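[job 0412] stage=complex_fold ligand=zinc ion status=START
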Amino acid sequence: MNAAEILLVLNGLEPVDTTGWVFCVVTHGAHHYWDNSAQQMRESKEERFWPFEKGEVLVLAGEYEREPFGEGRKPAKWSNHEHHFKDLSEALACREAVLAGTWQCECAPEPVGEES
Ligand SMILES: [Zn+2]
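[job 0412] stage=complex_fold status=DONE, emitting structure tokens
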């Protein structure tokens, strides 16, 4: 049993083409959310990561694509901020920094509702 065989079984015995696949790390949450009962966007002082978790590492079928397995979540659809990596060790280092609170990136969205 090897990883390629496991991937084949997980994919319903269809060959898996991983061209363009990336590791994705959720680095920041959103500062707004959709209030379904009120049918409007609301601001949030807290970072909201749902349906992801802070520092979560995902496999995506491309930078703006879905997870190829499982729930098939699509980070690009949400207001979270994430980074993409081809290299797993880089993704894991990013995750560690995010969880330690030391991750910094210039492309992160400005937090809403913070006093400056
Ligand atoms: Zn960034």
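The pocket of zinc ion is lined by residues 27, 81, 83, 105, 107-108 (CB under 6 Å).
[job 0412] exit 0
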